[in-house]
Amino acid sequence: MGQATEIKKSSGDDSKERESKFLTFTLAGEEYGIKILKVKEIIGMMPITSVPKTPQFYKGVINLRGKVIPVVDLRLRFGIEEHEYTPETCILVVDVDNGGANETVGVVVDSVSEVISLKMEDMEPPPDFGEMVETDYIDGMAKTDGGVKILLNIDKVLGGQQGSTECPESDSLFS
Question: Is 78 inside a domain boundary?
Fold first, then answer.
């Protein structure tokens, strides 16, 4: 895991100097990040009640302090092979903008890594894989310590119709 970048005060409105904070986590050995402002909390695994006739990546719902929230397994959402949960497996409770309506959703990830601060020059737009590969849900690629972390737009990952791979428009880092 890389070290978080030190935050420096900017004198002026130079967008190159602005930093964004991301919570990073792992899925199948790869590092991902989402904007920290989208994360409400991180909780350990808890009993999940299945809901019939939902897509496979919807694990069900949990009761979080009296509020019932849906839970999505991000491995399954991305088509990554399911594996048994470990003590490091956790649920990120995130706020998702679903077409103007704010929703709270739980996201199962393999483990949480760290919070990192990134400057714009440490990020690049997602590469163009051609028409056959959809990358709208990727905000960018973070260059950290010789590696790359995939920065996700969680609104696009989780938004849209249930079971659909089509995602609604949302703010991106590079638009």
Answer: yes
Q: What is the CATH number of the domain that holds 35?
A: 2.40.50.180
pTM, two decimals, is 0.79
- As a whole number of angstroms, the distance between CA 23 and CA 38 comes to 9
pLDDT tens sequence across 33-68: 999 999 999 999 999 999 999 999 999 999 999 999
Alpha helices in the chain (DSSP H): 74-77, 154-158
The range of the structural domain enclosing residue 103 comes to 19-158
CA dist 160 and 162 (Å) reads 7
Is position 1 within any domain?
A: no
Instruction: Answer yes or no: are the C-beta atoms of 24 and 151 closer than 8 Å.
Output: no
Q: Would 8 be classed as within a structural domain?
A: no
Nearest to 77 by CA among 114, 46, 106: 106
